[in-house]
Specification:
The chain is built from 14 helices and 17 strands. The protein is α/β, with parallel strands linked by helices. The strands form 4 sheets. The protein has a 5-stranded antiparallel beta sheet with strand order 4-14-15-16-17.
């Protein structure tokens, strides 16, 4: 079997930085050897700077990229997530399959150019404009599979179960008509998608949208059906994003959202608790002990005014976490790390909050944690530069003016996250051992981004 190799003077392994690292991978893009203190064999390519693991993006709503920047005006006396959601529903109501595929392709190219190498797509626009199933019930899911394949992006597809508009089984609103599926219908969709995902190397899971959108009986039946189909499939859920959601859950059940979920569902390491912004200390400790991942989306949470995740309490309990770009107000892996750390500094009035004793460099510590948590949430072998993992890699440009002549790879990574434009320092991005981005640019950059722009223009014309 033919193998390919890459030599890096500095590489960030799961255990930390190592020098003179030779990585090899097979034709399937799986790493077969990682040797530190190695000699670079003749004719083996050399990385142009520090070698990082590719970053998994654990939360994405691809279609929302099309209205980035279009909701930044005051439309109510007190704008919030809920007023933003009304604007989002207008785009969701108008989008066509062709537009979704074009937007997702452009977005995934953007993600790759910004250091993401895989994405968890939390996909809830299922039906046509009137809420009726397409002739092929998997039509919109297939748009996302094709977009990921074309861009060269690793994918975890998470079809969303969405049934009600609020706690207590409130009927869905008109703006939610394209999202709604029965539990049996969702399980049938998963059965159809499973071989299609496997053929592409994508992972399939399930996303109960939220406790307000999935009644208890439906949640229980969906989890049982998924477990029978694939006991290792990932489960993602929006939870405790907004204080209004917490208040409504308390009024409905007498419990806070995370508290209710932990008492009524088998939460374990398969789960990603997206946002989990508003947890009590007890909820944080209990949720962390399950092994679930906190899915943090700092730029979206800031954009929507959600609040600040209590990272110190979560980390003290041994909690795992990763980052996602969610609504794609920002598409940049390092930007999410910077935003997360800065939010913690503002909340605690301290610095380097997300560093650790083992990794005192905050950029290094955050990168390793986010890769590990994102890989777990993806349920794919993308957990870093280690044997058996996919060869998803990012090369920094050691000759970039803001990195050049810095004394250590820690310092170069810190400059990338905190002192650069956070994208101009990216030299290469590899997915499964194949270069997808060279000199900061994807081969489909112009075509894919023009397609996104065209789809957005069409949507703007057809959105009331």
């Amino acid at each position: 079997m033919n193998e390919q190799s890459l030599f890096a003077e500095h590489a960030l392994l799961p255990s930390g930085w190592a020098c003179d690292v030779l990585l090899s991978w097979n034709n399937q893009g799986v790493i077969t050897a990682v040797k530190a203190q190695a000699v670079c064999p003749e004719a083996t390519p050399r990385a142009a700077g520090p070698l990082l693991p590719g970053m998994p993006n654990l939360h994405s709503h691809a279609f929302q990229r099309a209205f980035g920047g279009l909701t930044e005006y005051r439309g109510a006396a007190q704008d919030s997530f809920w007023s933003w959601r009304s604007l989002m529903y207008r785009f969701a109501a108008a989008i066509t399959p062709e537009q979704l595929e074009a937007i997702a392709t452009g977005l995934y190219v953007e993600m790759l150019e910004a250091g993401y190498t895989s994405v968890c797509e939390f996909h809830y626009v299922h039906h046509d404009h009137d809420g009726r199933p397409y002739a092929d019930d998997a039509a919109l899911s297939m748009c996302l599979l094709r977009a990921a394949a074309r861009a060269g992006m690793g994918l975890t597809l998470l079809p969303v179960l969405y049934q009600t508009s609020g706690f207590g089984a409130a009927p869905p609103s008109e703006g939610q008509r394209r999202f709604i599926r029965s539990t049996d219908n969702m399980l049938a969709l998963l059965q159809k998608l499973k071989p299609l995902c496997e053929a592409q190397g994508a992972r399939l899971g399930l996303a109960p949208h939220s406790l307000r959108a999935v009644p208890p009986d439906s949640l229980r039946e969906a989890l049982a059906g998924l477990h029978a189909m694939d006991a290792t499939a990932p489960l993602h859920i929006h939870i405790a994003e907004q204080t209004a959601e917490v208040d409504a859950c308390l009024a409905w059940s007498g419990q806070r959202p995370v508290q209710w979920l932990l008492d009524h569902a088998p939460v374990d390491a398969r789960w990603c608790l997206v946002h989990a912004t508003h947890m009590s200390a007890e909820e944080s400790a209990r949720a962390a002990r399950t092994g679930a991942v906190a899915g943090l989306c700092p730029s979206t949470e800031a954009n929507l005014g959600d609040g600040i995740f209590d990272a110190p309490t979560w980390l003290q309990a041994g909690g795992r976490w990763g980052v996602g770009s969610d609504s794609h107000a920002c598409v940049n892996a390092a930007e999410e790390l910077m935003q997360l750390e800065y939010s913690q500094r503002l909340a605690t009035r301290q610095r380097n909050v997300l560093a650790s004793v083992a990794q005192p460099s905050v950029a290094t510590s955050m990168t390793l944690s986010a890769v590990a948590g994102g890989a777990q949430a993806s349920a794919r072998s993308v957990a870093g530069l280690a044997v058996g993992q996919q060869a998803d890699m990012v090369v920094l440009d050691a000759q970039h003016p803001l990195l050049r002549d810095l004394p250590t790879p820690d310092a170069m990574l810190s400059a990338h996250v905190f002192a650069s434009h956070r994208q101009s320092t990216l030299q290469q991005v590899w997915v499964a051992g194949r270069v997808q981005v060279q000199s900061g640019r994807h081969v489909l950059h112009d075509t894919a981004l023009n397609g996104l722009v065209t789809a957005r223009q069409q949507l703007l014309k057809n959105t009331p």
